[in-house]
Specification:
Layout (H helix, E strand, L loop, with lengths): L1 H20 L3 E5 L9 E7 L2 E6 L2 E9 L2 E8 L2 E10 L2 E8 L4 E8 L1
Antiparallel strand pairs: 1-2, 1-8, 2-3, 3-4, 4-5, 5-6, 6-7, 7-8
Length: 109
């Protein structure tokens, strides 16, 4: 019984890590808003997420299944991000510390 639980646990963990790895790589903005970060570069290690958005380093990055979240400071303004990956698409919600937000869409290269 312990072996079965161990095997199932390993399979579940492996599938969670596979989803997290889907975030890895370069994502390009899929719109024509010049004020939006045009490129996002991400790398995962377990549930930790690192990278850049619009050239700014991200901090506090985490992934769980197909969801990711992080913060970044660009041009002196701190933004919080939360996104959902669906295949090669990333819907990323950007919120300023003042509470203003917008939805940004990215495509994976």
């Amino acid at each position: 019984m312990k072996k079965v639980i161990l095997i199932v646990s390993i399979l579940v963990l492996g599938s969670l890590l596979a989803f997290a790895a889907a975030a890895d790589g370069t994502w390009n903005f899929a719109g024509n808003d010049a004020t939006a970060p045009q490129q996002l570069s991400l790398a995962t290690s377990g549930t930790n997420l690192t990278g850049t958005i619009g050239g700014a380093a991200i901090s506090g990055g985490m992934t769980q299944a197909n969801t990711l979240w992080f913060s970044a400071t660009r041009s002196g303004v701190t933004y919080k991000y939360k996104g959902t990956i669906n295949g090669t698409k990333l819907a990323l919600y950007e919120e300023q510390t003042a509470g203003q937000g917008r939805l940004l869409n990215y495509n994976h290269n």
